[in-house]
Structure formats: structure tokens, C-alpha cells
Write a structure and sequence with these properties.
The chain is α/β, with parallel strands linked by helices. The protein contains 30 helices and 37 strands. It has six domains: 134 residues, Rossmann fold; 146 residues, Succinyl-CoA synthetase domains (Rossmann fold); 165 residues, Rossmann fold (3-Layer(aba) Sandwich); 113 residues, 2-Layer Sandwich (Dna Ligase, domain 1); 112 residues, ATP-grasp fold, B domain (D-amino Acid Aminotransferase, Chain A, domain 1), CATH 3.30.470.20; 167 residues, Aminopeptidase, CATH 3.40.630.30. Helix content is 35%, strand content 22%. The protein has an eight-stranded mixed sheet, sandwiched between helices. The protein has a seven-stranded mixed sheet with strand order 8-7-10-9-11-12-13, with helices on both faces. The protein has a six-stranded parallel sheet with strand order 3-2-1-4-5-6, sandwiched between helices. β27 and β28 form a beta hairpin.
Length: 893
């Protein structure tokens, strides 16, 4: 469940405070007073067995006595009474409640009792143990906070009530307003994912701020965040950065994957901008409310102090910005209005004695320059000109530019305390955020860039899918054999065989069950040899003396194994020794040692890791983490995040290593996470990489004790099991498969063969050309919510039809839209494809499917009627028809 029955948080017309009271300092009294004093225009009720009178409040002794069904209930009663109250509210018909009460948990059974009472009525619960909820547009303050929230464009969703009060105090001082403030408390029902979905589509919400301590229902959270981040900034601060490292694991990969790092990787994948401190959260919130999104990271700087300008330049790299290269026309215009001693470059130093007019001319010139994506205007205090007068001039010229539709972000940086309050008021009122240091101003511009980059990563990043086949039959046999032996750890021979089944190069290897057979086991292997102990009790072989390298013949290998066994049995007599692994020594003079692997995070499930390998892997701690599945372009990007990435390039006399081979390994590991939720940890260390490729020298794999019932991926891979060959009633065969992220060129070529009339039918407007934004929405999809099916001709080369199915967050309904190539119309393709989409929707548990059709699209309306769709006229637009078909019985209301 996601946003179902949460609409009262946005449009409540009546509120009942259960436990509302006139008793001074009681929770019920504070909340009731806040609602009344906040100016809520709807009806307010207080439910309390003890009668009291309060202006603007209707008193009722019981919930049953309420004269109407309250849209929203606020529960402020002792914990033990909450389940019964929820049951009574559900019977009354209320569908959303905010439970402020603490003390409902699993241990005392009250949390589950509350949820059980709510479930039969589909009553949604925010909380328990929360500060409450604020909807400034409704003038509704249903909290026990001391500070009210002004109306504005931020939705603050917080797992900490104390943090909410701090943000409200800060916002009031900065004139920052909110569309909503929600303290989510224990998230027994309504969680962050639900509320992100709610405010993603709220037109009054310009950005979403998150304070996160931990995520529940991770897949829903990731899906909701990615959907929101496509259309508005989502900024988060994660508490617990310095928490203790994860529990010791058998692999380096598991040890390196700290919880905060995994959150960082997950947030990046979902398009969330992560900040480190409350100050950064406040600064990000402010600039996102005031400034337009830049087209890029090229920054212009106007300053009356050269040193301040240099300090700003020094901060650019950390913010992801660059210095704008001013056009010759701009430099000429500045030459005409500035003293001859001006800097003649960006930063534009207008000289220390610059009056307001000089600022006006410089700012105007840079705003008109197309190479400038954003502008910082700096002022250092002097005795010659008033800082406030310069601020007024800047405000005027920015207003003129915006009137001419030049809406670039402009930031102020006024150094010094003279007239600080007056300057700040002037600039903020003009929509110009103002900072007191150059690095703060540049960092703020960086938040705008980070938000832009996060959105573009969801819609515009490179995508490359490589068709590769793996021997999953062999891989399943290996895992099943280990499980049949009641082992959760694969031996090295099994681990290498598993890697080989997924196309990862491994070292030629033989196994000897005893010291006496080592010499013969060397067999066809070429010296020099490496001999390693095989023991279920030894995780890191080299540390236990279980690895000997550089053995030049079979006898040396046998002697090394004998000495190894003697040493290990003397130091670790309890250790079981299964045998010895003999490998060909891999000698690659230009090789780099890397690590690649899979670990399992308790919150986000499987993760992929790559970085610098070798025996000092934890000390170097150079790694990059991502959530699977990854495509090939994402694998290459992940490698680039490591410090090791630079060493893969050529330097001095060392040739470049085969970066693509490392990405191929990550592709294979990503596929393993999809195919085998059984794998808890997989560690390839070292992965030797040189100009000729990559080879795994050592691997460890740990699996679950029992076969998992379901996938534990929080990001759903493309459901390629729904690829199929279909045949129309007329006998036309075609192939259909789910869309991939790199199918945009195929889809673009398809729409070039769709008639103008059919384009109008498909997009409900006149469309001459289907642009990138629409194509990206159809190809770069979240498969938990959206899928596009591509129908190909018999040769599987050209797209002949498409069907896009987009479900709402609750999955109670989904909208479908079809398009068919002009030369394929009338041959049953649309009918057969739509039938297939309906089968998919039903398998996904979607309750109903609807399509929005132009009233004159007679062929589609006729087909849909014949397929059992009901047709109604859109009440808001008589030229549109809504066709709907139920696929499953509706849930209880």
C-alpha cells in the first residue's frame, strides 16, 4: 500500500482530536490549541469523556457521538487505548489517523493490535510515536511543536520529531515555507515511501526533504524516490554515518560494505541528493526554493574583491562547477563600462570602489552570456558604497532579466556584518539566496547541480545492455551440490566453477585430496605452481600460512603442501583440511590487483563492490558500491568512482589495463544477483587486470542454508521472462519483449513510421516528432511500476507496435497506451498485444487497467469495447473517453 487513503493529509475538511483536552500542558491540549490557533478552516472536534468547552471546537464524549465522519483523526491518548480507538475510527468511516502516542511496540503487542484494527477498514496510520503533521495550505498544525510552519514549497518528511522542531525554527527565521511537514515516527504503517509518493505529484511541493534514520519497505522507498526525483529535487540527510562497522564477515567485500556507504549508493541510484549535515540540509532547502535549476555547471562570478573571487574559484571543483568561459561579446561589453583595471576575465572583478551602477552593468552582461549557467554576485564591504544600495541594484537587474525570461540561478555573497540584515532581506525578497562566505555560496550552487545531475542520471545517463548467455544450469548444480552437503560455503573449486559458468576467467586449477597426491595432481598444469590449502575453517588462507607461490616443479609443490600441513596442524590443530588446490601461477608484469564481489546489506539486499584488491584491501579501503542490477554503462561508471580507476589508464611505461574486462566481470556478478538470491557473499580478490583482460585468482562464495523463495533485489530487473513469440488471429507472427534502457533509438525509429493522426491518438496532442523526454519515459522505466512492451517483426529487427503500462503506486490501477506502425494496422497486432499486456497486468496483481482515448479514435474504442472495457466520457474534457476494465475483485474499501 502506498498513497491509498492519504488524501486527508492534503485536503482534510474536518479533524477530530481523540484525547483533545483543556488540561494545561497535556498533549491533547497542546495539539488542539495548535489546530485552533493555526486557523484551520474546517471543522474541529475533540473527543474526551470529560466535557469541556473551547471556542471553535466541537466536543464529543465518544467517537460514536461525532456528528460526521472526520476526514483526519489525531490520536493523543495512552498507548493501551490506541488499538480500540483505531477500531472505532475505522467503524465510523475515518480513513486516516495520526497517532502521536508512544509505547506501541511489538514486544507489548500494541503495535500489531493497532495495525490489525486498522487493516479491516483500510485506515491509514501516520506514526505512532510522532510529533504530528502540518499542512500549511490548510492552516492545519496537528503537532505539539512550538513553532508553526509557513506556507511554501518544501515537503519535510522526518523520522525525528526533534529534527522537525529545529527545522521549523530555522525556516521561520529564513522565511522558508512548507507544503507539508510530517513526523513519521515509528512508521508502523505509513512510511517514507508512501509520503514521497504523495508529495511527488503535489503541485505545491517544489522539493522533498528527508531526515532518514532507517528505511523500511526498501523496494517501495527506492521506487517512490526515483519517481519523485524525476520531476523535483529530493534531498536527504542520513543519520548514523559513524555507526559501528558491519558485523565481521567471511569476505573482504562484506567487510568493506559499510551501512552508510550502502545508503549513499542507494540514494544515488534513486536520484536522492545526500547531504552530510543539518547546515547543508538547510542551505540546500533554501536554494532549491529560491533558485532555478541551472542548465549546466558553468558559473559566472562578479566581485569587488579579487581575493574573494579567487576563494570562490578554489571551491568550484568540490561543488562540481567550472568557471564560465565568457564570450568575446561579453568581454567587450564589460570593457565599455568597467575601469581599465578590471580583471578582463571571469571572475569579473569590478574593483573595490564599484558603485551600484557598475554592479548593474556587470551582472546584466553575465546574465545575457549563454556560456554562464549561474551567477554569484559578491560584495566586500568598503567605505565608499553602501552594501544595501549595491544589493538593490542587483535585485533590479535580476528582476529585469527574469522578465526577459533569463531565469538563471543568481546567488549573493555579502561579506562582513555591516547592514547584513537589510541586505539579506532585500536579496531574499527578490528570490536571491545570500551567503556570508565564498565557499558557502559555491557549495549552494553545487546543491543545484547535484539535484540536476541526480535527475539526469535517471533520464539521460548512458545505457548499454550487452546480450550475454551464462551457464545457469551448471551454476545451479554447483549451488545445489553444496546445499545437499549442508554447506553454506563453496570450496574453491566450486567457487571457480561458478565464476567460469558466468564467463569470468579463472586460473587453471587442479585438486589433490591429500599431500601424497599433490605431485600427480599437478597433471597438465604448467609450472610455476601455487599451492593453497582447502579448508572450510580457513577463510583467509595467506594469513594462516595456507598459500605458497612460485613453485617451479611438481616435487616443490608436493613439498610445499607437506610443510603447509605440518605448520597448520601445529598452529591450528582443530582445523579441518579437505585437501590442496594447485594452480598455475599467473605472471602478468603489468597487472593491477582489484577486488570485485557481492555482499548482502540487511536493508538494501545484494550490493556490488569493486575497488583496489590485494592483501591490504581493508587498509586501502578504495571501493565503489552499487545496487544491482547494473547495465554495462553503469558498471563502467562504477569503476570510475574508485581511485584504482586512474591506475587502469596508461601511465609512464605501463600500458592501459582492460577496463572493459572489469566491467564484464561486474556484468556477470550483477546477473548472479538476479539469478541467485542464494548468494550472500562472493569475493574475487585479487582480480588481476592487465591489457589482455581480467582473471580471478581467488574466490570465496557463501550461500544461504535454504533456497530463498523470492528475489531480494530492491531494484527490479527487466522481467525478461515475459519475452514471447505471439501470433495474431490472422496468423501474423511477431516477437514481444520488455523494453530496455538502451532501446530509445529503436523506439524513435518506430515513431517515425507512426502516422500523424496515430501520434495524436497516442499522446492526446498534436506531435510532429517524439522527443527524447517522452522516449526516455518509455525506455528508462522502473519495472515495479512501469513497463513498455516492444513488438518486433519476425526478424526481430524493427519495432512494429508498442504498449506502455504505468501503474499507480498502490497498483490498484494502471494506464495503458498503445501505438502501431502504419503498415501494420488492421492485422490484429494491437488486439494481440493488448491481450498480452492485460495478462501481464493481472499476473502483477493490478486491479484494473484503463486507457485514455480521443473521442474520435473509433478503432481503438471499438476494439476495447469488444475486449470488455467500459467507456465513459472524461468529466473534465468531453473530447476524451476513459475506458476501463477490472482484472481482479476490488479490495475492501
Amino acid at each position: 500500500m502506498s498513497i491509498r487513503n492519504l488524501s486527508p493529509l492534503s485536503d482534510a475538511k474536518s479533524v477530530a482530536v481523540i484525547g483533545g483536552s483543556a488540561r494545561p500542558h497535556s498533549l491533547g491540549a497542546i495539539v488542539l490549541d495548535n489546530i485552533v490557533r493555526g486557523g484551520f478552516s474546517g471543522t474541529i472536534y475533540a473527543v474526551n469523556p470529560h466535557r469541556f468547552d473551547q471556542p471553535g471546537v466541537g466536543w464529543c464524549a465518544t467517537i460514536a457521538d461525532l456528528p460526521e465522519v472526520p476526514d483526519l483523526a489525531v490520536v493523543a491518548t495512552p498507548a493501551e487505548s490506541v488499538p480500540g480507538i483505531i477500531e472505532l475510527l475505522g467503524e465510523k468511516g475515518t480513513r486516516c489517523a495520526i497517532v502521536l502516542s508512544a509505547g506501541l511496540n511489538q514486544a507489548n503487542g500494541l503495535k500489531q493490535a493497532m495495525l490489525d484494527a486498522a487493516r479491516s477498514h483500510c485506515l491509514r496510520i501516520v506514526g505512532p510515536n510522532c510529533l504530528g503533521f502540518v499542512a500549511p495550505r490548510l492552516k492545519l498544525n496537528a503537532t505539539f511543536a512550538r513553532t508553526k510552519a509557513s506556507e511554501g514549497g518544501l515537503a519535510l518528511l522526518s523520522q525525528s520529531g526533534a529534527l522537525v522542531t529545529a527545522v521549523l525554527d530555522w525556516a521561520q527565521a529564513r522565511s522558508i515555507g512548507f507544503s507539508a511537514v510530517a513526523s513519521v515516527g515509528d512508521m508502523a504503517d505509513v512510511d517514507l515511501g508512501d509520503l514521497i509518493d504523495l508529495y511527488a505529484t503535489d503541485p505545491a511541493t517544489k522539493a522533498i526533504l528527508l531526515y532518514v534514520e532507517g528505511v523500511t519497505n526498501t523496494a517501495k522507498f527506492m521506487s517512490a524516490a526515483a519517481a519523485a526525483a524525476r520531476i523535483k529535487p529530493v534531498i536527504a540527510i542520513k543519520a548514523g554515518k559513524s555507526a559501528a562497522a558491519a558485523k565481521a564477515t567471511m569476505s573482504h567485500t562484506g567487510a568493506l560494505a559499510g551501512s552508510y556507504d550502502v545508503y549513499r549508493a542507494a540514494f544515488k541510484r534513486a536520484g536522492i541528493v545526500l547531504v552530510e549535515t543539518l547546515t547543508e540540509l538547510f542551505d540546500a532547502a533554501e536554494i532549491l526554493c529560491l533558485a532555478a535549476e541551472p542548465r549546466g555547471g558553468r558559473l559566472g562570478i562578479v566581485t569587488n574583491g579579487g581575493g574573494a573571487g579567487i576563494l570562490a574559484v578554489d571551491s568550484l571543483q568540490g561543488a562540481g562547477a567550472t568557471l564560465a568561459p565568457l564570450r568575446a561579446e561579453t568581454l567587450g561589453a564589460l570593457d565599455a563600462v568597467l575601469p581599465s583595471t578590471w580583471s578582463h576575465a571571469n571572475p569579473v572583478d569590478v574593483i573595490g570602489d564599484a558603485p551600484p551602477d557598475r554592479y548593474r552593468e556587470a551582472v546584466s552582461a553575465l546574465l545575457r552570456d549563454e556560456t554562464v549557467d549561474g551567477l554569484i554576485v559578491m560584495n566586500c564591504p568598503t567605505g565608499q558604497n553602501e552594501a544595501s544600495a549595491i544589493a538593490e541594484a542587483v535585485c533590479e537587474v535580476v528582476a529585469i532579466a527574469r522578465g526577459a525570461r533569463i531565469d538563471k540561478p543568481v546567488l549573493g555573497c555579502w561579506l562582513g556584518d555591516s547592514n547584513a540584515a537589510a541586505v539579506e532581506t532585500l536579496l531574499l525578497d527578490a528570490g536571491i539566496p545570500v551567503y556570508t562566505t565564498p565557499d558557502d555560496a559555491v557549495r549552494a550552487f553545487g546543491y543545484l547541480l547535484a539535484s540536476r545531475e541526480a535527475r539526469l542520471a535517471l533520464t539521460d545517463r548512458p545505457v548499454e545492455t550487452r546480450e550475454r548467455s551464462f551457464d545457469t544450469t551448471e551454476a545451479k548444480r554447483i549451488v545445489a551440490a553444496a546445499r545437499a552437503d549442508k554447506r553454506e560455503t563453496l570450496d574453491q573449486m566450486e567457487a571457480q566453477a561458478l565464476l567460469a559458468a558466468y564467463g569470468i576467467a579463472v586460473v587453471p586449477t587442479r585438486f589433490a585430496a591429500a599431500v601424497e597426491t599433490v605431485e600427480d595432481a599437478c597433471g597438465w598444469l604448467k609450472p610455476p605452481f601455487a599451492v593453497k590449502i582447502s579448508s572450510p575453517d580457513i577463510v583467509h588462507k595467506s594469513e594462516a600460512g595456507g598459500v605458497v607461490l612460485g613453485l617451479h616443479d611438481r616435487k616443490a609443490a608436493a613439498a610445499a603442501a607437506c610443510a603447509m600441513e605440518t605448520h597448520i596442524r601445529s598452529v591450528h590443530p582443530e582445523v579441518r583440511i579437505d585437501g590442496y588446490i594447485i594452480e598455475e601461477m599467473v605472471v602478468r608484469h603489468n597487472a593491477r590487483e582489484m577486488i570485485a564481489g557481492i555482499a548482502t546489506d540487511p536493508t538494501f539486499g545484494p550490493i556490488l563492490l569493486v575497488g583496489t584488491g590485494g592483501t591490504a584491501v581493508e587498509i586501502i579501503a578504495d571501493k565503489a558500491i552499487a545496487l544491482p542490477p547494473l547495465d554495462h554503462a553503469q558498471a563502467l561508471a562504477l569503476i570510475s568512482e574508485t581511485r584504482m580507476s586512474k591506475l587502469l589508464d596508461a601511465y609512464r611505461n605501463v600500458p592501459a589495463a582492460h577496463r572493459e574486462a572489469v566491467a564484464d566481470v561486474l556484468d556477470a556478478l550483477s546477473a548472479m544477483t538476479v539469478d541467485f538470491p542464494d548468494i550472500i557473499e562472493l569475493d574475487i580478490n585479487p582480480l588481476l587486470v592487465d591489457p589482455d583482460g581480467a582473471v580471478a585468482l581467488d574466490a570465496r562464495v557463501r550461500i544461504t542454508a535454504q533456497a530463498p523463495a523470492d528475489s531480494n533485489l530492491v531494484i527490479r530487473p527487466a522481467p525478461m521472462e515475459w519475452a514471447s513469440s505471439l501470433v495474431t488471429q490472422s496468423g501474423l507472427a511477431f516477437y514481444v519483449r520488455p523494453v530496455r534502457g538502451d532501446d530509445e533509438p529503436l523506439l524513435a525509429a518506430f515513431f517515425e513510421h507512426v502516422s500523424p493522426e496515430d501520434l495524436r491518438f497516442r499522446f492526446l496532442s498534436t506531435v510532429a516528432h517524439v522527443e527524447h523526454a517522452r522516449l526516455a519515459a518509455m525506455t528508462r522505466v522502473d519495472y515495479r511500476r512501469t513497463i513498455t512492451f516492444l513488438a518486433f517483426d519476425a526478424a526481430r529487427e524493427n519495432v512494429i507496435a508498442t504498449a506502455m503500462l504505468a501503474a499507480d503506486p498502490d497498483r490498484t490501477r494502471a494506464e495503458v497506451a498503445l501505438a502501431t506502425r502504419a503498415d501494420m494496422k488492421g492485422r490484429g497486432v494491437s488486439w494481440t498485444l493488448l491481450e498480452y499486456v492485460l495478462r501481464y497486468a493481472k499476473a502483477e496483481g493490478i486491479g484494473s487497467v484503463e486507457a485514455i482515448e480521443c473521442a474520435d479514435h473509433e478503432a481503438a474504442l471499438r476494439m476495447e469495447r469488444e475486449m470488455g472495457f467500459a467507456t465513459v466520457t472524461d468529466p473534465d474534457d468531453p473530447t476524451v473517453r476513459i475506458v476501463r476494465r477490472a482484472l481482479a475483485p476490488a479490495d475492501a474499501a
